[in-house]
Design a protein that fits this description.
This protein has 2 domains: 333 residues, 3-Layer(aba) Sandwich (Alkaline Phosphatase, subunit A), CATH 3.40.720; 147 residues, no CATH class. It contains 19 helices and 23 strands. α7 runs parallel beside α9, α8 packs antiparallel against α9 and α12 packs across α13.
Length: 555
């Protein structure tokens, strides 16, 4: 089994990396591309961390692995729930490598908590609870890591705040450097046939500080650019040095792949779809005095987002972080602020809880939602009504059409879990307009400028750079998709590829005659496919929600 190393740079984009390579700041990444191949890597719909990394490691689209987002409606309620490794209903590349006897080292890949047994070592990734003692396989690996690096963290502890850019970068560098040191030490401790490390720090950095680099961003401040731009570029220099070190440790016979799950680009505005649904009568407010009063105050501006802005201006943002995203704080805010608990679900047709580049909308369907109002016979009509409302949305500033495309889920997915996807996806007219995927009502406006904690969002094209035996050299490749990565990894490890994957082995990556000398082999996916999956999870781990909010995933 040929050694293969995958370095994941969450959210990395050639839009940032190419200029840095041209400046000579990323010599190792450029050298890898020069002796191998590079190209854009098309992600899945929606282009989120959870579904995209799950597609990378399984070769399946979300409708066949079961991860459509990081967050969903929790089973039996309208509250937010988090998906995790128990919700991934397909084998991963490292599972298959282990089946065939290969030792694996898997570090910080999203959607791997709680850790499953592997033939080697695994440290879970994004969505691991901050205080979890159950984040490694085998369990005693955590102790070994703490001996190597006492301050090791899976994600930064502090959420981004515009008033603490320097401190944010300090911790980001510390977390990244600690991961690199642990990775290097673990690389020395085994004859690993498959290695995969994902660094979410690139994604966190871009969500928070894109406006510092982007002179066209409406929040760009030349003073901040002068103070922090070179330090941000220096972070990518750290990433590049890591790539060089890992490649040197791997040896000439190893294949090295650097990928991202999606791209990144500027974010200027947010759409709050649930406010539109209330305005159009799709969602109904309860008639009791308490809910009507909360809604009246909400309309007047008493919203979590406005309170946060006021607290931030008064220097109280840290209080908000300490209270807003705990179970106690959430219950208190739900009590005082207008929220989903104030919606009369028995009279409501639909709701939105999935956002980003694409918005996701669910029909409030009987026998699926806890208080479903739409029966099966009315499903088609309800979906058409919501699509019409979305397409009719206008920008409050220029009056132009805000949503340019609405897709039914069957247009996006064909797999066995399609029924779990949002009933509709809608695409705003421009990627600088994002969809706020909140389960509550953080703002009383339908469209507003993006909040000060986020200035970029995901894009559909990530990066793909690879070098190794039989791959082309110095070539620009086209047509790579995240679902094509798993078949490629299995092939270059000299393993069989499961039949029935959504992804395909891209023949354009290989030197002439390579596939003829060693044709790919296939086996039946159902022989290893796991069908059992866990329920959607509740929101009781406030540390998860706090970090997701600070990193721009939820409001």
């Amino acid at each position: 089994m040929r050694k293969t190393i995958v370095i994941g740079l969450d959210g990395a984009t050639f839009d940032l990396l190419d200029p840095l390579m041209e400046r000579g700041l990323l010599p190792n990444l450029k050298g890898l591309a020069d002796r191998g191949i590079r190209g854009k890597l098309r992600t899945v719909i929606p282009p989120g961390t959870g579904p995209a990394w799950s597609s990378i490691v399984t070769g399946l689209d979300p409708s066949n692995h079961g991860i459509f987002d990081l967050i969903v409606r929790a089973t039996g309620s309208y509250n937010l729930g988090f998906l995790n490794a128990e919700s991934l209903r397909a084998p991963t590349v490292w599972d298959l490598a282990g089946v065939f006897g290969g030792k694996v080292l898997v570090l910080n890949v999203p959607m791997t908590y709680p850790p499953r047994e592997v033939n080697g070592y695994l440290v879970s990734g994004l969505l691991t609870p901050a205080a979890s003692e159950r984040c490694t396989y085998p369990p005693d690996l955590l102790g070994k890591i703490r001996e190597m690096e006492p301050g090791y963290k899976i994600v930064p502890a502090q959420a981004f705040s515009p008033a603490r850019i320097g401190a944010f970068l300090d911790e980001l560098e510390q977390v990244f450097d600690a991961k690199v040191r642990v990775m290097k030490e673990l690389l020395k401790q085994g004859d690993w046939r498959f290695v995969m490390q994902v660094f979410n720090e690139t994604d966190f950095l871009q969500h928070a500080l894109w406006h510092v680099l982007d002179r066209e961003h409406p929040r760009h401040d030349p003073a901040l650019h002068g103070r922090y731009a070179e330090r941000i570029y220096g972070f990518y220099g750290r990433v590049d040095a890591m790539i060089g070190d890992v490649a040197a440790m791997a040896g000439d016979d190893a294949s090295i792949i650097v990928i991202s799950d999606h791209g990144h680009g500027p974010l200027h505005e947010f759409i709050h779809a649930n406010n539109l649904f209330i305005e159009k009568g799709i969602m109904k407010v309860k008639q009791d005095i308490r809910s009507r009063l909360k809604y009246a105050l909400f309309r007047m501006g008493l919203t979590p987002l406005n309170v946060y802005k006021m607290g931030s201006a008064l220097g109280l943002a840290r209080l908000r972080m300490g209270l807003r995203w705990t179970s106690k704080g959430y219950r208190m805010l739900s009590r005082f602020f207008f929220s989903f608990s104030d919606i009369d679900w028995k009279r409501s047709t639909g709701y939105a809880i999935s956002g980003g580049v694409y918005g996701g909308v669910f029909i409030n369907l009987k026998d699926r939602e806890p208080q479903g109002a739409v029966d099966k016979e009315g499903y088609r009509e309800a979906r058409e009504r919501l699509a019409k409302v979305l397409m009719g949305m206008r920008h409050p500033g220029d009056g132009g059409q805000l949503v340019t495309e609405v897709l039914e889920r069957e247009e996006v997915y064909k797999g066995r879990f399609t029924h779990e996807a949002p009933d509709l996806f809608f695409l705003p007219r421009d990627p600088t307009v994002g969809v706020f995927g909140d389960f509550e009502f953080s703002s009383n406006r339908i469209v507003e400028p993006a909040s000060e904690v986020i200035s970029a969002q995901h894009r559909m094209d990530g990066i793909f750079v690879a070098a190794g035996k039989d791959l082309k050299q110095g070539a620009e490749v086209e047509g790579m998709r995240v679902i094509d990565v798993a078949p490629l990894l299995l092939y270059i490890m000299e393993l069989g590829i499961p039949e029935g994957l959504d992804g395909k082995l891209n023949e354009g990556l290989f030197a002439e005659g390579a596939l003829g000398r060693r044709p790919p082999s296939y086996f039946k996916l159902e022989d290893v496919l796991a069908t059992a999956g866990g329920d959607r999870h509740t929101m009781e781990d406030e540390s998860i929600k706090e970090r997701l909010k600070g990193l721009g995933y939820i409001s």
